[in-house]
Specification:
The protein is 62% helix and 3% strand. By secondary structure, the chain is an all-alpha fold. Helix 1 packs across helix 6 and helix 4 runs antiparallel to helix 5.
């Protein structure tokens, strides 16, 4: 599981037992870990389908074919499950974003790389993205999810900084607002989780390339 650094707000690895939220499952550690991962996957699908607030611990237990009490051997609440889903998502995407920025390519190539990373999360992190869209305001009001706002702010700085660099180098139009531009790109990508279907006409990488054509070249004939 991941949580947030006290200095940066960035998700980091959480050790077993930290915060008192993890409970040891029955059986061998490997089996307990496998059961946890299975429960997280099941819960993620329910959160994506029904919404976090509408999903109960009983729903998750029923989906797993276990009693509600058995679920508490692995998690103390459904909040702990969604915490694992969201912190894992932010840790992965922020690491990938930073790696792309650190490559030092020109801003246009860097923005293209960030777009490809974002679209690449639609399938493996469908639940996390859906929860953020549907339950963001509810979750960010809870102290344990303070890292959501901190992480989103850090992501915004990455994108906005790259857009500003592109303006300074004459690659991007000087009359666009960097923060507004980032938020329009972000929202366009994330809303795609509502209609993107894995196995459809376009996969996530092809969807990203189509989006980049429209974003950089528009729909007018040049």
């Amino acid at each position: 599981m991941t949580t947030t650094s006290t200095n940066t707000g960035r998700p980091r690895a959480r050790t077993a037992g930290e915060g008192g939220t993890r409970r040891r499952g029955k059986g061998t550690p490997a089996l307990a870990s496998e059961r946890r991962e299975h429960l997280v996957r099941l819960a993620a699908e329910l959160f994506a389908e029904k919404g976090f607030q509408a999903t109960t611990v009983r729903n998750i237990a029923d989906e797993a074919g276990i009693l509600s009490g058995s679920l508490y051997h692995h998690f103390d609440s459904k909040e702990s499950i969604v915490d694992e889903i969201l912190s894992g998502f932010f840790h992965e995407i922020m690491t990938a974003y930073q790696r792309t920025i650190d490559e030092g390519k020109d801003p246009r190539e860097t923005i293209a790389g960030l777009v490809r990373i974002a679209f690449g999360t639609l399938e493996p992190h469908r639940a996390a993205i859906t929860v953020m869209q549907n339950d963001w305001n509810y979750l960010k009001g809870m102290e344990r999810f303070a890292y959501l706002t901190k992480s989103e702010d850090e992501v915004e700085k990455m994108w906005v900084g790259t857009i500003k660099a592109g303006q300074e180098q004459g690659l991007f139009r000087p009359d666009i607002d960097p923060k507004l531009t980032y938020r329009m790109i972000r929202d366009t990508v994330w809303v795609a989780v509502r209609w993107f279907k894995p196995g459809g006409r376009l996969d996530s990488s092809e969807l990203a390339e189509h989006y980049l054509k429209v974003m950089f070249d528009g729909i007018n004939v040049h």
